[in-house]
Design brief:
The chain is mainly α. It has helices at residues 3-25, 33-38, 45-56, 59-72, 78-107, 112-120, 123-155, 161-207, 214-223, 237-240, 249-261, 267-274, 279-305, 307-310, 323-332, 336-377, 383-406, 410-436, 442-466, 469-474, 476-496, 503-515. Helix 1 (3-25) packs parallel to helix 16, helix 4 (59-72) packs across helix 13 (279-305) and helix 19 (442-466) packs antiparallel against helix 21 (476-496). The longest helix has 47 residues, at 161-207. The chain is globular and about 70 Å long. It starts with a helix and ends with a helix.
């Protein structure tokens, strides 16, 4: 075992013990479904902010998106991190957090599906939303496993990636099944601190690399960079240093919109607002979460933009997914300090992924145990049985996503690229308009859901039949943004030509904003 491997194993063991202890300690505080799913709506600003921020970023962002966009776009890719913080995180907290907290408490809804049912008095919407969550969030979690497996495989090439996926799955299952939302909130705080320390260390190390030469050197060296003629990924220095992404401007804009506005309709993100303690916690949480997202998002894409210099313009054997792991091994693979930092960075990426994974699994499991099964059997389940069922489905979803990840099925990876667009495209219109307007009707909300799904589904089917699914996957950012726009437009338009028959019920729901 090399020194780098030894330090990483020690760091991983300490991290695993800490996470397991938190899960077991939190077990006593997660005896009811309300506490297990949303922390009893009593989570403070720091826990809420870090829980939101860590769920936003996973190893997929660092290893996949930051590596790919940093390599292909250069400095301009940093705008994705800026957009995620200032367009995704900040407005979400400012506009949606308070109203979400108040209305979901009034409706006594613990999940996104339950919110739709009680806001619009529609069991059909609850069932439809649960199915969408089930189909599209499990592949997302499988992609998180894959990202981490590839990363640890770079440090431990002699160990199969499935071994690391199994370790991650086991650790996640222990503290999530035991402690639920409360355990994830405390672990997210620790994971968030690790992520901040890790990304700052990584930025400092990468910028101080001789091939980069600081931030000024990064701009100067990239401006002189040019691929070898005949390179299929030929790119010039002017493209890599273009502040707005050069010829990739359109691609950059759609990715910013998808990964920023998409969070406004994702149940695993919105669910964090259900649990916030009060209005004052929301105000502080807004600032903390935005700063966190700026540091992590911009830092990840900044590191990605240095990759062509550090790797001498040679794309690694594993393609763009191997860019960040290769950069890490180049800049941190030698010297005691570098090896220690590599261990910290590995735990950073593990933390980022596990926080995302736990949010997705908890959302998916509750969609089935709380929303889907009771709707199908048309029978109320006792709270104690529902708690057992929810814990069982958390475990089941961890196992399923692990199995999907280890099967190396290409469609699973491609399907992940659609998950943000499909889920947010279905939910964003009915969710946001339902918070702000009494005039939104059940028919309008259902129309927004269906049209959001079709806005992705029909073009994907047409492109796949005429070309290939891979071609459709490349269009996923545009399709996702279109679905969100369609949902936001269709909901109020259809509501204009339909009427609510239960105005007294809706007036009663909106009373929650007058009292706050």
């Amino acid at each position: 075992m090399t020194t780098a491997q030894l330090y990483t194993v020690i760091a991983l063991c300490l991290y695993a013990i800490t996470m397991a202890v938190i899960g077991l300690v939190s077990y006593g505080k997660s005896k009811t479904l309300d506490s297990f799913l949303i922390g009893g709506r009593n989570i403070g600003p720091w826990l809420s902010a870090f829980s939101y921020g860590t769920a936003y970023f996973s190893a997929v962002v660092f290893v996949g998106y930051a590596g790919q966009h940093g390599w292909n776009i250069g400095i301009g890719a940093i705008w994705i991190g800026v957009g995620n913080a200032l367009l995704g995180c900040l407005p979400s907290w400012l506009l949606l957090a308070r109203r979400t907290r108040l209305m979901t408490a009034k409706l006594n809804s613990k999940t996104m599906s339950e919110y739709f049912e009680k806001r619009y008095d529609s069991k059909g919407m609850k069932l439809f939303a649960s199915i969408i969550i089930f189909i599209f969030l499990v592949p997302y979690s499988a992609a998180v496993y894959k990202g981490l497996g590839a990363l640890f495989g770079a440090v431990f090439p002699s160990i199969d990636s499935w071994v690391w996926m199994l370790i991650i799955a086991t650790l996640t299952a222990i503290y999530l099944v035991a402690g639920g939302f409360i355990a994830t909130a405390y672990t997210d705080l620790i994971q968030g601190v690790i992520m901040i320390v890790g990304i700052i260390c990584l930025i400092a190390t990468v910028l101080n690399n001789d091939k980069v030469g600081g931030f000024t050197g990064l701009i100067e060296n990239l401006s002189r960079f040019q691929s070898v003629e005949g390179d299929p990924n030929f790119i010039t220095g002017s493209q890599l240093t273009s502040i707005f992404g050069g010829s990739s401007f359109k691609f950059l804009c759609f990715n910013i919109m998808l990964t920023s506005f998409g969070t406004w309709g994702l149940p695993q993100m919105i669910g964090k607002f259900y649990a916030v303690k009060d209005t004052s916690a929301i105000k502080r949480g807004t600032i903390i979460s935005t700063i966190f997202c700026l540091i992590i998002g911009c830092g990840a894409y900044l590191v990605g933009s240095t990759s062509r210099l550090i790797l001498d313009g040679q794309l690694p054997e594993g393609g763009v997914d191997a860019v960040i792991p290769s950069v890490l091994m180049k800049v941190l693979g030698n010297g005691t300090l570098g090896i220690i930092l590599l261990a910290v960075i590995m735990i950073l990426l593990l933390s980022a992924s596990m926080s995302t994974l736990e949010a997705v699994v908890l959302t998916s499991a509750s969609a089935v145990s709380v929303d889907l099964i009771p709707s199908l059997i048309k029978k109320e389940i006792k709270p104690a049985n529902q708690m057992v069922l929810t814990r069982m489905f958390c475990l089941l979803f961890v196992v399923c996503s692990f199995i999907f990840a280890t099967q190396n099925i290409p469609i699973i990876v491609n399907l992940m690229s659609f998950s943000w667009g499909v889920v947010s495209g279905c939910f964003i219109g009915p969710y946001i308009w339902g918070l702000f307007s009494k005039k939104i009707t059940k028919i309008g909300a259902i129309s927004g859901m269906v049209c959001g799904l079709l806005s992705v589904g029909i073009p994907t089917l047409v492109i796949t039949l005429n070309n290939s699914f891979a071609a459709a996957a490349k269009m996923s950012p545009e399709l996702g943004v279109s679905a969100m726009a369609v949902s936001l437009i269709v909901v109020p338009l259809v509501s204009l030509i339909t009427k609510n028959k239960d105005t007294d019920r809706i007036d009663n729901i909106f009373e929650c904003f007058k009292k706050a």
